[in-house]
Design a protein that fits this description.
The chain is 24% helix and 36% strand. It has 357 residues and is of the alpha+beta class.
């Protein structure tokens, strides 16, 4: 195996960037592998774009190191890094044709032959668009041109900052999939910055969840989603329900029965977190309900306050009989009980997360 294939294409070590006396990027470390997509995911203002700009070379870190294929490029200019850039505004040159836009970053030999330009346009279904100008393109077509323009010089690394946010939902999924296929076929190491968990789950081989300038969790999408590091990480990926309790003898009493909570001291307050799809609704305490699910423990009584159909599922809000709690359950398909209906809830304990409050 080639050494470069088993080593990170990009190694980011302990990056720090301070603005106005505040660390907007605080000790960030990342590894990007060739042929893989890493999503830097987090809310607006968490430092994602600043991290990307430092890797691109358009902004300098206050400390830390950036290496590409083992070569230190921390202070190298952007053009010396072999990095492709793609942003949400596409930034196509309006006076150039599609072919000229795609060929802009190629060397003279490639430009004269046109082979690389034609090959890339064909891969994204735009082989008949070479002579068009950007104003003649739809948003989705312009996005694909921007993608192949960035890929034309065969960059070792592709940095993408919210590249799909300007597209409507009807186009977005198809274009994301086509982009992902092309990037993987090119063997490019990709860093995709996004604030959308669904986009990260759909595209990433690895997710780095960022908050307050720091990476709080890294891993494969399955692991980040199913083993969140804290309550905020769980809530970033989906709606959550929170049941509060207090530990006594490694157990926490709840209306759904006792929970094993080892590792927490007696008297510690904890949050038991469960997603809406892992609540089971029963019409009575006998277990008859609209969403058969493996559940255990004790049923708890709730009164419907609202139900709405969301297309693929129904969301039902309950005012529970304990501590004024409100829980939300999701049910596949249509299930719209009237407000005031009394139902019973059970929970999947194997889908619960326990965190210190």
């Amino acid at each position: 195996m080639n050494v470069l294939e088993s080593s990170p294409r990009v190694a980011v070590e302990h990056l720090v960037r301070r603005l106005g006396g505040r660390a907007v990027v605080d000790d960030v470390s990342l590894s990007l592998m060739a042929g893989q997509v890493t999503c830097l995911l987090g809310p607006s203002g968490c430092g994602k774009t600043t991290t990307l700009r430092m890797i691109a070379g358009v902004e300098r870190p206050d400390s830390g190191r950036i290496a590409i294929d083992g070569q230190d490029v921390t202070l190298a200019p952007p053009e010396a890094r072999g990095v492709g850039l793609m942003f949400q505004d596409f930034a196509l040159f309006p006076h150039l044709t599609v072919a000229q836009n795609v060929g802009f970053g190629l060397n003279r030999a490639h430009r004269s032959s046109g082979n690389r330009v034609g090959e890339l346009l064909e891969k994204v279904g735009l082989s008949g668009f070479a002579d068009k100008h950007p104003h003649e393109l739809s948003g989705g077509e312009a996005q694909r041109v921007a993608l192949v323009r960035a890929l034309a010089p065969r960059p070792r690394v592709m940095l993408m900052d919210e590249p799909f946010s300007g597209l409507d939902n009807r186009l977005r999924d198809g274009i994301r999939d086509a982009t992902l296929d092309l990037l993987k076929a090119e063997g490019t190491a990709v860093l995709l910055v996004t604030h959308e968990p669904d986009e990260a789950m759909r595209m990433a081989d690895q997710i780095a969840l960022m908050r307050g300038g720091r990476i709080v969790q890294q891993g494969a999408p399955y692991n980040v989603y199913n083993a969140p590091v804290d309550r905020a990480a769980a809530a970033f990926f989906s709606d959550i329900n929170v049941i509060k309790g207090k530990v006594q003898g490694a157990l926490t009493a709840t209306p759904f029965g006792d929970f094993l909570t080892p590792g927490h001291q007696d008297g510690a307050k904890i949050d038991i977190v469960i997603r809406p799809q892992h609540l089971k609704i029963d019409f009575d305490r006998g277990g008859r309900g609209p969403n058969p699910t493996v559940a255990d423990g004790t049923p708890a009584r709730g009164t419907v306050t609202r139900a709405r159909y969301m297309g693929r599922e129904s969301l039902v809000d309950f005012a529970m009989d304990f501590e004024g709690a409100v829980l939300t359950a999701s049910v596949p398909g249509v299930f719209l009980p009237k407000p005031g209906t009394v139902l019973w809830l059970m929970i999947r304990r194997d889908r619960c997360f326990v965190f210190a409050a």
